[in-house]
C-alpha cells in the first residue's frame, strides 16, 4: 500500500509549535515510508480564513523543510461535499433539524436536571413533511445532523493502541449549519476518501471524533484510514498552544533567529523517548522516529532546552552549510567560521563575533595589568605564526612574570578582544596575525 498522509490546517492565523507537531510527524511518516504528503487548507470558514494566512502556512512549512506533494483548498471543493451531502440525505443518514440554539440549550439543561446525558433527543426525526413545511414558513432554516449508528466503534491506533469510541453516548453531530456552510467533519472525510488518504496522524484531542468519522466513512462507502493520535505539545506552564491565546508562532521563532531544524526537533521529539539533540536533518529524524517512541503523557516544551539545542546545532554546523548565509552578511572564510561558531547562540551573532577578526574592537587593560601588557607586546613572537605560537608567547610571559592561569590569560584576552569570553586564543592569534595584535596591544 502506498502511504498518503495529509496535514490540514485552518488558515485563520499563523501556525505555532502545536500545529508544527502534526505537520512534521506526518512528514516524517511519509518520508520513512516513501509516501506522499498532502497539504489541505481547511478554509471553509470564510469569515476567518484568509489567503495571507494560507500563504504564511506554506512559507512556514518551507522554512521547516517540508515540501508538500499536493496542495488542495477546501474552498475549491464544495461540489464534492454537496454530492456527499445528497448521498447521505438519500440514505437517510443526514436529516434536517429546526431547533434554535436557545431551544437546544434548554433541552440540554433539562436532561442534566433529570440526571441524563445532555445528548440530542432526535426529535427532528419525528417531524412530518407538514411539520417541516410549517417551520420553514416561519422562517426557520434547518441545520443537518448525521444519524449515528450508536454503537461501539473500534479502531487500532498506531500510537495509543486499541481504541473504542461508543457513538451511542454521543449526540448526532451537526454537519451542515443553518446557513448551508459545512462544519469540519464532512469535508474532512470526503477529502480523505477522494485523496486516498491512508493514514490520519493528528493530536489526541481528536480521538473522540474518530468514531463519528469512521461511521461517515462507512456511510459514504469509503476506505477507513489508519489513525494515529499523538500527545499534545504544551508550553512550559502546561498550557496548550493556541492561535486564540496568541501562542508564539513559527514566524516569531524565525524572526528571533532560531534554526528551523531546532524548532522541528523541539516540536516533534519533545514527549518521545528520543533525546533532544542535533540531527543532520529531517530525513535523519524520519529514519529513527517510530510512533512507539511517542509518550502517552503530555509533551512539555522548554524554551531553555530550545536555546541550548539551537546553540548546539550552530556549534556543529559545517562551513558548507554556513557559507551562503555568511556571504549574505558579507563574511567568508572557513577558518573564521570554525573558530567562532562555538560562541553562537543565534546565527546572526556571527556578525558581532567576526569583529574580533575584522575590528573595530576596544582593547581593555586594567591599570594593574598595563605593565604586563607592555611586556607582552615586546615579547610577541616574530612571524610566521602557527598553532604553536600562542604557547611560545605565554610560556615566555610566564617565565618573565611568574603569572599563570587566569592572571596570565585573561589580561591578554581583554587586550586582544575587549571581552572576557570568546574563542580559543591559540587559534584566534593565528587568524589575527602579528600586525593586528601589535595594533591592539597598547
TrEMBL record:
One of its GO terms (cellular component) is cytoplasm. It catalyses: tRNA(Glu) + L-glutamate + ATP = L-glutamyl-tRNA(Glu) + AMP + diphosphate. GO terms for molecular function: ATP binding; glutamate-tRNA ligase activity; tRNA binding. Its EC number is 6.1.1.17. It is found in: Cytoplasm. A motif ('KMSKS' region) lies at residues 240-244. Residues 337-441 form the Aminoacyl-tRNA synthetase class I anticodon-binding domain. Signal peptide: none annotated. Residues 3-273 form the Glutamyl/glutaminyl-tRNA synthetase class Ib catalytic domain. Keywords: Aminoacyl-tRNA synthetase, ATP-binding, Cytoplasm, Ligase, Nucleotide-binding, Protein biosynthesis. One of its GO terms (biological process) is glutamyl-tRNA aminoacylation. ATP binds at residue 243. Its main location: cytoplasm. Pfam families: Anticodon_2 (PF19269), tRNA-synt_1c (PF00749). Catalyzes the attachment of glutamate to tRNA(Glu) in a two-step reaction: glutamate is first activated by ATP to form Glu-AMP and then transferred to the acceptor end of tRNA(Glu). Belongs to the class-I aminoacyl-tRNA synthetase family. Glutamate--tRNA ligase type 1 subfamily. PANTHER family: GLUTAMATE--TRNA LIGASE, GLUTAMATE--TRNA LIGASE, MITOCHONDRIAL-RELATED. This is Glutamate--tRNA ligase. It comes from Devosia equisanguinis.
Amino acid at each position: 500500500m502506498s502511504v498518503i498522509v495529509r496535514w490540514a490546517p485552518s488558515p485563520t492565523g499563523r501556525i505555532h509549535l502545536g500545529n508544527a507537531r502534526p505537520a512534521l510527524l506526518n512528514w516524517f511518516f511519509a518520508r520513512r515510508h516513501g509516501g506522499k504528503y498532502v497539504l489541505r487548507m481547511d478554509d471553509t470558514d470564510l469569515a476567518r480564513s484568509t489567503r495571507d494566512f494560507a500563504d504564511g502556512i506554506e512559507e512556514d512549512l518551507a522554512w521547516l523543510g517540508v515540501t508538500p506533494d499536493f496542495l488542495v483548498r477546501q474552498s475549491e471543493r464544495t461540489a464534492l461535499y454537496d454530492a456527499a451531502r445528497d448521498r447521505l440525505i438519500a440514505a437517510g443518514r443526514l436529516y434536517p433539524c429546526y431547533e434554535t440554539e436557545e431551544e437546544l440549550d434548554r433541552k440540554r439543561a433539562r436532561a442534566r436536571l433529570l440526571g441524563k446525558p445532555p445528548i440530542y433527543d432526535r426529535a427532528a426525526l419525528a417531524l412530518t413533511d407538514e411539520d417541516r413545511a410549517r417551520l420553514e414558513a416561519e422562517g426557520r432554516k434547518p441545520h443537518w445532523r448525521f444519524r449515528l449508528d450508536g454503537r461501539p466503534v473500534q479502531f487500532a491506533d498506531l500510537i495509543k493502541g486499541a481504541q473504542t469510541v461508543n457513538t451511542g453516548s454521543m449526540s448526532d453531530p451537526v454537519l451542515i449549519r443553518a446557513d448551508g456552510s459545512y462544519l469540519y467533519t464532512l469535508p474532512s472525510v470526503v477529502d480523505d476518501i477522494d485523496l486516498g488518504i491512508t493514514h490520519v496522524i493528528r493530536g489526541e484531542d481528536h480521538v473522540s471524533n474518530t468514531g463519528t468519522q469512521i461511521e461517515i466513512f462507512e456511510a459514504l462507502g469509503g476506505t477507513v484510514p489508519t489513525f494515529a493520535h499523538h500527545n499534545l505539545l504544551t508550553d512550559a506552564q502546561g498550557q496548550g498552544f493556541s492561535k486564540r491565546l496568541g501562542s508564539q508562532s513559527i514566524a516569531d521563532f524565525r524572526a528571533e533567529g532560531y534554526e528551523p531544524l531546532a524548532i522541528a526537533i523541539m516540536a516533534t521529539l519533545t514527549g518521545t523517548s528520543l533525546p533532544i539533540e542535533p540531527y543532520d536533518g529531517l530525513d535523519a529524524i524520519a529514519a529513527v522516529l517510530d510512533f512507539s517512541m511517542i509518550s502517552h503523557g503530555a509533551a512539555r516544551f522548554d524554551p531553555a532546552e530550545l536555546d541550548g539545542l539551537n546553540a548546539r546545532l550552530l556549534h556543529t554546523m559545517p562551513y558548507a552549510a554556513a557559507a551562503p548565509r555568511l556571504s549574505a552578511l558579507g563574511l567568508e572564510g572557513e577558518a573564521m567560521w570554525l573558530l567562532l561558531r562555538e560562541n553562537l547562540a543565534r546565527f546572526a551573532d556571527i556578525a558581532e563575533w567576526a569583529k574580533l577578526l575584522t575590528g573595530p574592537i576596544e582593547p581593555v587593560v586594567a591599570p594593574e595589568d598595563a605593565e604586563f601588557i607592555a611586556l607582552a607586546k615586546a615579547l610577541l613572537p616574530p612571524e610566521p605564526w602557527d598553532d604553536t605560537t600562542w604557547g611560545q608567547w605565554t610560556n615566555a610571559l610566564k617565565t618573565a612574570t611568574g603569572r599563570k592561569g587566569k592572571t596570565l590569560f585573561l589580561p591578554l584576552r581583554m587586550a586582544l578582544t575587549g571581552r572576557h569570553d570568546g574563542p580559543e586564543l591559540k587559534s584566534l592569534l593565528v587568524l589575527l596575525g602579528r600586525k593586528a595584535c601589535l595594533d591592539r596591544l597598547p
